[in-house]
Amino acid sequence: MSIGKLSAAGLLAVIAATAAPITYTFSINTFGTLGSTPFNGLVTFTITTDTSLILSSGGGQINASIPPTNVVITTPAGTTTLAAAPILNNSGSLVSFTSFPSTVGVLNSSLSGYDLATAIGPVTGTNAIGAPVIQTSVGNLTLSGGGFLTFSAALGIIPPPPPPPVPLPPSVVLTLAGLAAIAFYVWSDRKRQTGPA
């Protein structure tokens, strides 16, 4: 076996040994719409990938390509995934992900030099949301406001937050309708047994 093949095999073994799952989370309290459903509350973008997909593109930028289904978006109006593959990026003090033409990011000086491959945060900073209409698997997500954005990264795969609870009023209405049907049945049965008055 040649030294070149041994070197390549060794390099691949080192890369495989250093690859680890990582989960990034961006969250912001905002209002907007998911499809045609309005919401007001916490929106969380949970991104899972592998550290082996993180590349330095020169000029101080670090990027990671991510499949669109690896970005779970949880809003008060429901949960969805991105429609197009995003690119995760750290450029200076800005950590963001872009799913063309939209960008969601956080600006904080403590993120300067962050390599996207280690745990960090939570870090809160100025939100950097550009083109606030994000294409998702269930329609457009429109972010219409918000203040600070929080970013964190943790090694391992962390499940996204659970969706908001489903309201119970429909079950109450169905119960009342069932009780009304029973009451009507009892009333009509008694009327039939007593005959016409």
How many distinct domains? 2
Number of separate helices:
2
Q: How many beta-strand elements?
A: 13
Distance between the termini: 106 Å
Describe this structure in words.
The structure is a single chain. The protein is an alpha+beta fold. It folds into 2 domains: 21-165; 166-197. Helices cover 21% and strands 45% of the residues. The chain has 2 helices and 13 strands; from the N terminus they run αβββββββββββββα. The chain has helices spanning 3-18, 169-194; strands at 21-34, 37-50, 54-58, 61-65, 71-75, 78-81, 87-91, 94-99, 102-107, 120-127, 133-136, 139-143, 148-155. Strands 1, 2, 3, 4, 5, 6, 7, 8, 9, 10, 11, 12 and 13 form a 13-stranded antiparallel sheet that branches. A hairpin with a 2-residue loop joins β11 and β12. The radius of gyration is 26 Å and the shape is elongated.
